[in-house]
Each structure stands twice: as C-alpha cells, then as structure tokens.
Write a structure and sequence with these properties.
alpha+beta, single chain, 31 helices, 906 residues, Permease, six-stranded mixed β-barrel, globular, 15% strand
Amino acid sequence: MGWLQTLWSRCVAFFGESKLDEELDEELLTHLDLAVEENLHRGMSPQDARRAALLKFGGVAQTRESYRRQRGLPFVDALIQDVRFGTRQIRHSPGFALIAILTLSLGIGANTAVFTLTHALLLKTLPVRDPGELVRLTISMSAERNGSNAPLNLPIIEFIESHSRSFHGIFAWCVYDFPFRDGAVTSGIHGAILSGNAFQSLGVNPSLGRLLTPADDQPGGGPDGLAAVISHRIWIERYQASPSVLGRHITVTDHSATIVGVAPAGFEGVIVAEHPDIYLPLEFQAILYGQDTKRDGGRLWLDTFARLNPGVTRAQAEAEISALFPAILDATLPPALRHMPQIERARLEVRPASTGWSRLRSQYTEPLLLLQLMVAAVLLICCANLSGLFLARASARRQEFAIRGALGASRLRIMRQLFVECLMLALPGALLGIWLATLSGPWILHMLGNAEAEQAISMRPNLTVLSVTIACAVFCAFLFGMAPAWTAGRTSVDADLRSSHPRMHLGAAGLGSFFVPFQLALSLTLVVIAALFGTTITHLLTEDSGYRTDNVLIVLTDFLRIPEKGDALVALYRRMAARMEELPGIEQASVAAISPLMGDRWMDEFVAADKSGQAQPTEVMGNVIAAHYFSAVGIPILAGRDLENKDSDRNSCVISHAAARLYFPNTSALGKTLRNIVRYQKNANYPFHDFQIVGIVQDTKYDTLRESTPPIVYLPITTGNAGMTNAGANLFFVIHARNDAAARSAYLTALHEMAPSSPEIAPFEFKQTFLDSVSRERLLSAMSGFFAFLGLLLSGIGVYGLVAWNVTRRTTEIGLRMALGATRMEVFHLVMRQVMRLLAVGLFAGGLGAFFAARMVRDFLFEIQPGNPAIFLSSAMLLVSIAVLAALLPARRAVSIDPMQALKTE
C-alpha cells in the first residue's frame, strides 16, 4: 500500500502546486537568510555573506525544481509544458497546421467511414447474455465451406431439440413486413416472428412490461391472447415512451394483438441490418396462414439459433448433427423432396453467431475487407506526406533544437516534444474525420443497394468505432512523427548554433526522398485498382442483359391467406394480369415465379425427348410465367409464339436460344419435345413431364449480370410445375406501363378488386433491381475511385512540398550556378531531374504493387484482365502528370531566383 500513499501524496501535491510553491519559496528564503546571518556574524560584508550563502546552497532554482520533481507528477507537468509549447508552435504556423489537420481528416475520415460499416455489418456483438455461446444452424447447399446456405423449418428444429445433446435454448426467427393499424394510424411495420423462448435464450430484459414467453407461442395465444412486443425505438417515436402502451390493442395483418412489453434499448434482433419494430410469436404464422404452413416440412424459412451446452465446442456440435442429418431428412422432409439432387448434396452446419447473421455478409464481407486495406493505404500515404512536411519543418527548426540542447534538454525530451505536437494535430484531424465519416455514411449505405439496410444500419460512430479512430490517430501521429523526431534527436549543437541557415541532415534528406516515391507507389496501386473496378462496373452496366428496364415494375404477391388454391389461384393470377392490362397507361402485365436479376434461381433437369435414352439429362435454369411476360420485360421472340393463358398450353414451353443450341444443336428446336426429368423419388424409373417447344426467345441474364447468358426453359403457370413456390402464393407480377404511377395504380386496383384480404406489398422498379444487382461492384468502384483521388492529391502535395523545400534549401547553390552562367532552362532541368528520379522509383515500385494487387482482386473483375496494359499505362501517365504539375510551381520559382540577391543573402 506504500505506492498508493505515494501516488496519493503526489496527486495532492500536483493539484495544490501553487500553495506548495509558496511554502517552498518561504522555506528556501528562510534557509538563505539564516546562512547570510551566520556569515555576517563571521565578519563578512553583506555582499560577500549573501554570495557565500548562495554558493553553499547550490542554486535556488535547481533546488526548487528538484523538490518539485520529488513531490508532484513531473511527467504530467512536463506534458502540460509540451502542450503549451506545441500550441504556440501551431499558432505561429497556422497554414502548416491547417494542411496537416485536413490531410489527416481525409485519411482518418475515410478509415472511420469504412470501419463503421465493417463494424456494423461484420463485427458488432449482439447485446445479449454471453454472445460467444450463440451459434446458427443452417443447411449448406454448396460444396464450398461457408458457401450458400438455407434456413431450417419447424419439424427440423423440433427433431434437433429432441435428439441433440449439444445445444440448449434453440429458437427460430423470421423477419416479416406487416400491415399495421393502431387506432386511426394505418401503416406498414417491419417485424419478426420468433419462438416463444427466443428472448429467454438470448437473455435480454424488457425496458417495460414483459417479453414473449413459450406460453405465448401456443395455439390461440397466451394469457393476453396474441401477444406483441414493440421495439424501444418505436416506443419512443410513436408512443412517446408512455407506460400506458402496455395492454394496448393493435391490429397486425387484420388480427388483434396486445402489446405486453417493450424490447430493451439497443436490441434490434439477431438479423443484422434488420430492425424489427414488432415481435410476434411463431404461432402468428399459423394464425395467418393455417397450421399447415407453420409445420410445412418442404419449406425452409426459419433462421435458427441456439446456445452450445457447457463444455461443447462448435466442431463437436457440428459432428453430432452431421451424423443426425440423414435421419432428420428422413423424418421431416416430404418423400417428394427427400431425394432431390440438391438435398442429397446438402449438409447441416453450425456457425458462430455472436455477431448475429445477415444475408448481406456473404455479399459484402470480402469487399469491405478489401476497402479496409485500401483505406489503410490512404492512411499510409497521409503519414508519408506529413512525415515529409514535418521533416522539412524540423530541419528549419534545427537552431531551436540546438539552443534547447545547449540549455540542457535531453534528446528524448526534444523527441517527446515533437510527438506531442504531432498528437495535437492528429487528434483534431481525427475529430474532423469523424464528422466527415458521419456525413458520408448515408451515401455509403445507399451504395449497398439495400433499402432495409439503409434504414437499419447506423453509420453514426459508436464507442468502439471512436476508440479505434482515436487509436488510429495516435498511431498515425507516431508514424509521421517518427522520422522528424529522429532527425531532431540527432541535432549537432555546435554546428547548428554556428550555422546562419537551416540545413537538412543527410539522413533526413534521404528520408524525405524516400517518402515521395513511397506515396507515388501506393497511389499508383490505388489508381490501377480503381481503374479496374471502374471498367468492371462500366462493362456490367453497358452489356446487354436482354431486358427492358425502364417503366417496368415488379410486385411480390402474398396470397397465402386467400381461399383460392391450385387451379383457382392460377386463374386468379391470370384475371388480375388481364384486369391490369385493361387500365389506362398499362402496356403489358404478366406473372413470373422468378424475378430476373434478384439472385434467386430455380434449376431442373431436361433432355430432348427423342434422345432420352441416349443423352444424359442436363440441369438448366427455369422459370414459370404467364402470357405477355416476354413483351413486358422486352425479350424478343426469335421464333414461334408466346405462351398463352389457356389450359391448352399446359404442356407447352418456351426456351432461350442458348437452350435450343444445348438440346438441339443441329436442328431447329421449334415444335420439338423437351422432357423434364422429375427426380423427386428415389427409384429406378424417374417420372417425367413432356413439354412441346412453341417458341424460342433471345438469351438473357438470369440471376446476376456477371454470368454468361445461361440456357433457360420457361414453363406455363400450372399447379404441377416445380417453380410454383408455396403452391403459387408468392409469385411476381411484372407490369410494363407508360410510367410508374400508372403501374402502381393498376396493381392496387386489381388487388383491391380481386384479392382484397391480401397485404399490399410495395412494388419496386426493375431499373433499381438492375442497379442493385451490381451494388457490390458499384460500392467498390465508387470507394476505390475516391481513395485513388485522395492518393493522387496527397502525392501531388508531397511532391510539391519536397521540391519546394529543396529549392529553398539550394537557393544559394542555384544563385551561384546562375551567376556562373547556367541558363534558366538548365536550372529547370536541375529541379525536374530530381522529380523524374523520384517518379521512376515510385512508378517501378507502384507497378509491382499494382501487379500483385490486381491479381488479388481478380474475382471482383468482369471482362477485363488484371494485368491489362492500357489500365497500367493510363494510370502511370495520370500519376506522372500530377507529379509534374505539382513540381512546376517550385521549379518556376527556382528559375526566377535573382543570383545577386541569393549570394548577398548568404
């Protein structure tokens, strides 16, 4: 405890410094007066007596400082002195400080913006009890580890609960959009349905009332009927945080529910980039659509989470359920689906879920990590740029450092002073960078191409992001202050005191010449990557996708709750499409099971009927459509006709040109028969369905713009076709109209007339879907272009700063050369020769860096080779132009030097 008492006494002394100084001064004067009096008694004169007392005492100022170091906090005191001195230095050079702060704000702001999104989407831990125990159970449909995956369903979850010993607290979660009514207020609301034990398993506590329990997840509801929990956000915004919200009756999708509680602040569920405002028990699915839909074994729709039992690792849990998986499939899947090829390939996986889960992660994890590397390169350019500027400034202050050294300042003390000055510039730069990141956050979110994510993800830096940003600022201060501090610490007191002009130390000059090529190399790498991404997005957006995108609206239907099923539902779709075509402004209206370019796919096996015994069935893309689909999305019919909304077309199909070449390479496909092999049952003779080809259409993209146009088979809407997901209750209307308003009005009119009990789902523009399908590439192109611009700007400033300093340092030499007969052009060549040497080194190093970096991003490119010589050459020419322009101004100043004035100054 002795060190605590010492620390306490030092703190007390530090904060009571002025009083203690007065007491110390009085004590020192008392000692001096006693010594003087003693000397006077010995017969000395007053002057000799005082002089002898001072010599014996050893110096009042030194003694005072010695006592102050022993009693207070000398490090803090010295730090305060450094801050005061640094403040004076900044006040004396406001232009330099402004440039440094702005440079850092750009680099740190870019880093903060990217890291904020990375943290929100990938790294943010769920605000629940022991998040490290959480795992997500998923069915992987891909041969690759952590590839595409699918959720589970209730029968699978119940089987795992009853047979697995690795988990506890298994719960299901599914996000929904609900029609919502509270009194006179009617709107849509984003929500989730979840198992009754979900909140208990997560270990969260309500802000008000109670949360859902297993008793609420029962047929007929719990003690409060259908219970609902609202989010903390909507409680504040819509209900003004009123406690009277408890027991309030609301209407969700035409069903009455009772608000029983408010979720905790900051809790937004377990699906990242979703922000449910209402939570309902899983039983609500059965209330809406019937018990059959809740327990449908063929539908995978529930994101499933669990906690690992104590002592069980994730690998052990995965090994257990992998062994159980065949039995799970046998017990839960309908026989018609059990032996489908994709089911036979599937496996059950256990994935970490401490940070929740999001569908955006598979799309944006690699791009965000790549952007994080690029922004790190921008930060290095910033640090190299400021290091060059600080080196020049430190060389100009060498006489100051020499004087301080002569007065007793140690090398470490001078270096620490420079680090404090760097920190005093880095921290304001970080604060300004945070502000810039906050301003750019909405734009970055918009580039994700996900409307829900724009609303759900907050780009406001939280405590973690702020901590990382401040740590980044401190690290940057260390990086760009290291070389100037090293230079200042090598001050030669005698030489620098004798010199009338500041001279750069040879080592400092070498470092200054190193930083510029380093910036140029990183900038060239960024420019090449940005050019590759820019070319990629240009190719993707300009290549013909095969579709019309203007004035086309797509609407997802939700017909699970209407009485029409089977053929009656098919007839309803046809009538609604026909009704829409009757309304003003509508060109065509149709129906499709798969909406183009949304990442969804349906694949099935087909073979030419006359070769069914000779050729192996081939798996191709498929879609289920109604009449006028091709004219609605602008796909030309090359031969034959369109499908018709008639029962006579039940066994007809239309195929793409690529499918015609695949199945009938040497003959016309029109009128031929295509056999669909139905591999739903594991037996020797697979059933099949024959379709006559009545039309051939132009090739189109299917689920992404990156793919080459695949073979596609278009089947008519019938109850037996596999593309009729959920028995056809969730198909898409495709509407081509003169304008979007007409399309929206026509859809709502047909819906209210023919399916009034179905929820209104907001239509979306096909053009926006087209752009959103390349949102990842758009984000990479825009952000890399911005980083490349920053790199070029900072490199130009670095070249300008180094050349300007060298011109200033060599003013006398240039004047002497001109006095001896050197022409202005020779002086210009002298200055630019140094720039060319730096450029040559930077281009060589940057070319190598860009070569390897381009190969690292090969998977993100489209129709362009990573080593494209035109990209490298144009990037290098751009960098050379920027560097030459930056060097022209100081070079012009060099050729305008007056020799007589320069020599007179020396």
